[in-house]
Amino acid sequence: MNTNLTEDNLNRLALGIIEKNKCSYQEALKILGSLKLYVRCGEAIRKSGSLQAALLTIVNTGKRAFLGGVNVAMPNSVALKLQWPFSADLNTAVTNLGATVIPEAEIGKNFSIHLGLSASIDDNSIEVVCNGWSGGISNGIDRINLNQDVDFALGGILGGAIAVSAVFMKLTNINPSSCDHSNGVSLWRPDLSWTSVEAQGPKLKYLPKRVWLLGLGHLGQAYAWTLSMLPYAKPEDFNLLLQDFDRITDGNYSAGLLTDKQNFTPRKTRHCANWLETSGFVATITERKYDSSTIRTDEEPYLALCGFDNAKSRLPLEGSGFDLVVESAIGSDVSDFDSIITHTFPGANKKPSDIWKDETENNISEALIDAMQKEVKKEECGVLVTNLANKAMSASFVGAVASALVVSEVLRALHGGIRFESIVVRLRSLKNIRTSAIGEYSTELGRNGFTMAAPVEQVRQ
To answer: What are phi and psi of 392, to 5 degrees?
Structure first.
């Protein structure tokens, strides 16, 4: 019995393992602790910014789900092609993020993710296939050809997160066939097959100059992770306003992409600001709760990315004076934790009040109630047990996919692409993406301003 289990140190990914296996919380942690992730990288990773972003995302999401460790076999001394100030080269970045670099022979017969090694895909591996706008996995049978002239981090973040999701669901038996089929998403045209010519997207020219991040939990940190890897020609031209009132706790590690096991700045705003400022960006913080009285003024961003985890907080989104709000929400238990829905406001057919006014709380799983009752002292049962069991299952790789969808909405707006009122994605069923389009973007981000993107070959110069 773990008498110290609290809402602050609960591993949210373990909740899904409990539901799936009808086991105790400690048994769920043992299952997560037995999971190891293996990655093989080929020489192609030297030339591709999107593949490098995929690798960093695989490591950062993988270490939070595969608690037995992330092991990477890769070429020596790979120069970085990304905006990444924390390390001198890709190899160091991988180890600094928490992976172990190993000889390829040590992978043996373990199931592995391949990057830039398509010729070696077999029944015991999958390949990440990506470019700037698209990302997914190949089972080695299907030959996926994407336009590699369009190369930036976004599609790699997507593809890497999809790969980690697929391997996690395979090894935990949540979806045993998750690696059997080739699947992916075009972020330029999520309504089309990711391999179609029309879905390839243009070369990246423009990036947002200002962004207001609403919430810095699971989703908000994923947005920051993705934005930080975009190829800003002048990072100092990018201004972020970070809004959250909460503190980082031990339990945030399993889902928050910017959360470390030891955090010396416990306020989420300050921790994320420090991380972004290291990348050369300008960050401003506000630690008041977002509500109906929050109104943008003066030079504050006209663009907001919302990562709230509850319906009530989303209700005021159209009344804050933003020209464009992009928000996402994810599922809460083992049956739908990999489900993502995005919305854009204002000017959509449905307002926040139409979508969330009558939203009700999910029923609490009996398996979670039983497991939590065994973890706390008898005198603490009741409210604590209910609160623990009522927490949503969350996985960092789901947040990373959501962030790619959200940020792509902004990039489409800057490049005159299609505006989607909503996009619905389920990672275990990527062939069934649902979208609702409301025309092409024109002036939605006109007042927010833009700055130039650097070609990937110039990002590290």
So the answer is: -80, 140
Cβ–Cβ under 8 Å, residues 24 and 18: yes
* pLDDT tens digits along 101-159: 999 999 999 999 999 986 777 889 999 999 999 999 999 888 888 989 999 999 999 99
The half-sphere exposure of 26 on its side-chain side, counting CA atoms within 13 A, is 9
* pLDDT recorded at residue 389: 63
Same domain, 166 and 236: no
Q: Does residue 21 lie within any of the structural domains?
A: no
- Catalytic, 130? Answer no
Identify the bridge partners of residue 434 per DSSP, sorted by sequence position.
424
> What pLDDT score was predicted for residue 366?
72
Which range of residues forms the domain containing residue 66? 35-199
Number of domains in the chain: 2
Q: How many CB atoms lie within 10 A of CB 6?
A: 16
Q: C-alpha 105: how far from its chain's center?
A: 31
What's the number of CA atoms in the CB half-sphere (13 Å) around residue 313? 16
Asked whether residue 22 is domain-assigned, the answer is no
pLDDT at 6: 82
Question: Hey, what amino acid is at 26?
Answer: Q
Nearest Cα neighbor of 382 from 394, 371, 370, 373 is 373
d(CA 22, CA 20): 6
Which is the catalytic residue, given 41, 272, 306, 381? Answer: 381
pTM of the predicted structure, to 2 decimals: 0.94
| 8 domain-assigned | no
Does 409 score more than 70 pLDDT?
A: yes
Q: Which two tokens stand for residue 153?
A: 């981090």
End position of a domain, from candidates 173, 199, 225 = 199
Taking a C-beta distance cutoff of 8 angstroms, is the pair 381, 412 a contact? no
Within this chain, do residues 286 and 225 fall inside the same structural domain, yes or no? yes
pLDDT class of 1 with cuts at 50, 70, 90 = very low
pLDDT digits over 334-362, tens only?
989 999 999 999 999 999 999 988 765 56
